[in-house]
Design a protein that fits this description.
The chain has about 400 residues and is α+β, with helices and mostly antiparallel strands. The chain has helices at about 5-10, 60-75, 85-90, 95-115, 120-130, 135-140, 150-155, 160-180, 210-220, 225-240, 240-245, 275-285, 305-315, 325-335, 340-350, 355-360, 365-385; strands at about 15-20, 25-30, 35-45, 50-55, 255, 260, 270-275. Helix content is about 50%, strand content about 10%.
Length: about 400
Amino acid sequence: MLTERIIKATEPGPKPRILWDTELKGFGVKVQPGGAKVFVLSYRVTGRKRQASIGRVGELALKEARKRAARELAAIRDGEADPLDRRREARDAPTVAEGVERFFREYAPRRIEDGRMKPATMATYRNQWERTVKSVPAFAALRIEVVTRADIERAIAPRARIQRNRVLAFLNRLFNYFEALEYRPQHSNPCRFVEKAREEARDRILSPAEMGALASALDSEAEACPAAVAAVRLAAVTGLRIGEVIAMQWRHVNMETGRTLLPETKTGRRWHDLPDAALAVLDGLPRINAWCFTTGRNAPITYKTARGAFARACKAAGIDDCRLHDLRRSFATNAAAAGLSALQLQHLLGWKQATMPARYVNLAGEATRESRRALGAEIAAMMEAGGGKVIPLRKAT
């Protein structure tokens, strides 16, 4: 039987030799000519004789090596994968970085072609990978099958709250894809129980005075960036998302009926009625090419261009902490204050769920506050009138 003393005393020879254990058949120590000693296991699979290493002597105790060898032999008898095949599969298993490369090379383009993903979404995912996750080399180099929830937590930990949630959503989709490729067992997504960071909903709306100041500032900006200023104005008077405005094409606009087709929105293809103010903005634009808001080349203006014009106008108007999307929020809040219900707001502004318009009903401002005051006064008057009789509860016996 092999002992620690026998292994230590065995000197290397000119050729490799194996000291076989008499306690466990097939288990032994291979002594290399250079002096290295390795625990090995000899076995047969489908009639073929094979030999796998268990671990180095010195790094692994004899007792533990014998236990590992016994477990491997039992697994082979039960029909499990050959230890050498398992090691080759583990060595050849793709890393997270390799899986992401396949995601962008095969999966994302196919989804875009099928209309199941927007090119902008793919660009966002690539940006999240390149600028955030890939910057954690230890995570990118991990084999996909061994990634744990703790690895996901470490990869997203240094991010700000909103960015953390967006990157987590990307990783969740990524590991669902890896499961579909059978790189991991089903329902083993390590993102499943990672908690999202709490996000505070933004409630910035522009006051009537700020709207007036912004309009004047946009007039000054119009000469330098006419298309961008026009896009901002149309977004303000329609409540459309700035991306929906920028993507508008003349073939989708009917000036006679005052409607425009929005072929791609968050809720899908839909028609939108344009107010007179929006039609006036469009009527003042030259028809240079297919796009309503363009600088001349056969493409629409970019979001960056519109955002830049808006930011400069806000600065000139003395408006602080204001973003382009705040125009949509201001429109929704004013619509709610005018008496529109949550369902009407949902259809007006193209939300998937009624929870979003309900928020704006709560933010409706003076109209809602007046309603609350009026209702409160009415109920108080009822209570003070003494129209009802108070009946005491009967004491329990």
